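### Sample
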Amino acid sequence: MLFKQQALLRQKLLVLGSLAIGSLLYLVARVGSLDRLQPLCPIDGRFGPHGQEEIPLRALQFKRGLLHEFRKGNATKEQIRLHNLVQQLPKAIIIGVRKGGTRALLEMLNLHPAVVKASQEIHFFDNDENYAKGIEWYRKKMPFSYPHQITIEKSPAYFITEEVPERIYKMNSSIKLLIIVREPTTRAISDYTQVLEGKERKNKTYYKFEKLAIDPNTCEVNTKYKAVRTSIYTKHLERWLKYFPIEQFHIVDGDRLITEPLPELQLVEKFLNLPPRISQYNLYFNATRGFYCLRFNIVFNKCLAGSKGRIHPEVDTSVITKLRKFFHPFNQKFYQITGRTFNWP
Ligand code: A3P
């Protein structure tokens, strides 16, 4: 009898214990998401269409999960209508530079409750076939968002493609343009590393970086090599400036985004006229990855894919020196035009 009562008591304690643990877990998760809930603050500024009812950030954040479902294409027409969701053309584009940290920048900006990212690179303006499909095709590639959110896409090929500035200008002459740059030689080696990895995956052999970057006939820097040309930032920017004033560009320091992302993101928030909402809480350093990762709340966090942050091959120091010397005057011009100086050698 006593044994039976003890078993019953144990069972009750077990149920109560599970309930307590369950509630605790729920509370912990809620506190995590509450951390991300922002005070009521409508987004004003250039992006908000005047005179329309504005959605408070709290509501936007709360519905982020729902948006995610819609982005995956799981929304019915009725749901889209009910939630007043739209596919908007981007108000800002990360136009480059390839290997500058474009993915990290997009993902980090997406932490902001008023920002919605186009997950894929759309390559609308740099690809003639896509461009021929028209602006409605482009808009339909955009994620669903609330009218007061802004959509951002990134296609790093835009920065270096001849036709793109004019095409973007035709779509929206007041669009905001983000360019993330890294020290040009490091960027070129990163670019090479990505191509090398692709070749290795296909069991192909490839040249050494030194052989591509230096012309064997002249022993000078090979300006025909794409990874070198892409790093001459000022040349590309000058083409863009034929269409857009410099005030429409914001230069992000890609090297600093790696080591100290928050101040860089805060500068972008300011440039986009967004209230500051990304905090240190949203970014944590992951020692295993060696990079900052994203924290949405206490439960949900993510690091960038392994293809971001590759180990670069060792490059002959004389080649590095030669490249740095080569880029130097172009860098000076870039600082002068953009008003942003970097400690590049
Ligand atoms: P490496 O692979 O050379 O290290 P992109 O997205 O434009 O292709 O840029 C890739 C670069 O983003 C990577 O170059 C990496 O250094 C940089 N990066 C910046 N922040 C990062 C982060 N939080 N996680 C991973 N990579 C990051």
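Confidence is low (pLDDT under 50) at residues 25-63. This sample (Sulfotransferase) is used throughout the tutorial notebook.
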